[in-house]
From TrEMBL:
Alphabetized Pfam families for the sequence: DUF6596, Sigma70_r2, Sigma70_r4_2
Species assigned in the record: Streptacidiphilus cavernicola
Similarity comment: Belongs to the sigma-70 factor family. ECF subfamily.
The protein's name in its UniProt record: RNA polymerase sigma factor
Residues of the RNA polymerase sigma-70 region domain: 22-84
Span of domain RNA polymerase sigma factor 70 region 4 type: 125-175
Keywords tagged on the record: Sigma factor, Transcription, Transcription regulation
Highest taxon listed in the record's lineage: Bacteria
Location of the DUF6596 domain: 193-293
């Protein structure tokens, strides 16, 4: 007999496994049935089966494999019942034609897409197909690859949640209607989709690095997926500077993961981190990727946004202590980034760098100008940054109100606790 405590434990286990395995499930099922919407439904069916069976039979030794096997059994049953067998055969014939063309023509740069046996990567490129709008490509891929909710995606884009939900529904319908093949493209089509793919990988990593919702400060599984996909892309497109720039950024950011929380899981901000816990192997990999990105960028006429962000991350990685950080260079890099890829979030980060380099008053002027535009209304980091600058200027009562506002806006439990602690430290 399974007691209530065991049922709760198993339920939490199922939820954790689902969070990790759902992208792989959906990707593998999409390869099998060539329909993303149906693949997502089958994956959900497997989740329901786990919730029903595991409390009685126990958690299997390999829960991810159990979910995949269960979902594939249901997929096979569905295909057997499906009266549209002719359509499936037509899709298989189309796939064979693609394989023959690749063998005859050969892919660009000596990289063979058939060597990339990665269903997740195929899913990313499928969801980034040109038949979809840019916003729909990114939203759909975040949902399928990262298992993010529409709420989390909406917060990443700073847009209303219903807007994201509509984009995802319409995107899946469009892919099904257009019968988009589940494949890694090659040639000019690969180049066309690259920008969207890089943005997706970037946003997935960010969601793992600083979770927008829940009780955990980080979701390492998402960081690992994003970093792995970035490395695969670098192997596939070795002559693209921004691919290496993104990989450099992710490697260096990931190097800090162990130092970003304390023993209890509470957040540790960058200035307070024990830099001896930073992963030096990841930092070296990031530096190597940055050198490659800078070399290719110089030949191509200028740095892209991911290369610039990697250069900023490298400034932090090179500093042995927080006091040794070259904030003037970081402020200059943010200025270049704002010119290359204008964004209110970039401007907020530039304000932080300016404050560190030239004093809190200079940074506060930039933050106040941003606040007047309402472009970051509802974005919790705006009052958080403002609170920090006000505290540094000795305006503690104002700082406390800003920290309390930021705490009310964030959806992350660990971050809310940190912000309320900072508010309390400012006193009455």
């Amino acid at each position: 007999m399974v007691v209530a405590a065991d049922q709760d434990r198993i339920r939490h286990t199922v939820e954790a496994v689902w969070r990790i395995e759902s992208p792989r499930l959906i990707a593998g099922l999409t390869r099998l049935i060539r329909d993303i919407d149906t693949a997502e439904e089958l994956a959900q069916d497997a989740l329901v089966a786990a919730l029903e069976q595991w409390p009685q039979s126990g958690v299997p030794r390999n829960p991810g494999a159990w979910l995949m096997a269960t979902a594939k059994h249901r997929a096979v049953d569905l295909l057997r019942r499906n009266e549209r067998l002719a359509r499936k055969l037509q899709l298989l014939g189309h796939e064979q034609e693609i394989e023959q063309r690749q063998q005859q023509d050969g892919p660009p740069g000596g990289a063979d897409p058939e060597d990339i046996q990665d269903d997740l990567l195929r899913l990313v490129f499928t969801a980034c197909h040109p038949v979809l709008s840019r916003e729909a490509r990114v939203a759909l891929t975040l949902r399928l690859l990262g298992g993010l909710t529409t709420e989390e995606i909406a917060r990443a884009f700073l847009v209303p949640e219903p807007t994201v939900a509509q984009r995802i529904v319409r995107a899946k319908r469009t892919l099904a209607k257009e019968e988009v093949p589940f494949e890694v493209p090659y040639g000019p089509e690969l180049d066309e989709r690259l920008g969207s793919v890089l943005e997706v990988v970037y946003l997935v990593f960010n969601e793992g690095y600083s979770a927008t919702a829940g009780d955990d400060w980080m979701r390492p599984g998402l960081c690992e997926d994003a970093l792995r996909l970035g490395r695969v892309l670098a192997g596939l497109m070795p002559s693209q500077p921004e691919v290496h720039g993104l990989v450099a950024l992710l490697e260096i950011q990931a190097s800090r993961s162990a130092a970003r929380t304390d023993a209890s899981g509470a957040p540790v901000l960058l200035p307070d981190q024990d830099r001896s816990r930073w992963d030096q192997l990841l930092i070296r990999r990031g530096f190597a990727a940055l050198v490659r990105a800078e070399e290719l960028s110089a030949a191509g006429g200028g740095y892209g946004p991911y290369t610039l962000q990697a250069a900023i991350a490298a400034c932090h990685a090179r500093a042995l202590t927080a006091a040794e950080t070259d904030w003037a260079r970081i402020a200059g890099l943010y200025e270049a980034l704002a010119a290359r890829a204008p964004s209110p979030v970039v401007e907020l980060n530039r304000a932080v760098a300016v404050a560190k380099a030239y004093g809190p008053a200079a940074g506060l002027a930039l933050v106040d100008a941003l606040a007047e535009t309402d472009t970051l209304k509802g974005y919790h980091l705006l009052p958080s940054v403002r609170g920090d600058l006000l505290a540094r200027l000795g305006r503690r009562a104002e700082a406390r109100r800003e920290f309390e506002q930021a705490a009310a806006l964030t959806r992350n439990g660990a971050e809310r606790t940190l912000l309320l602690e900072r508010a309390a430290a400012c006193g009455e």
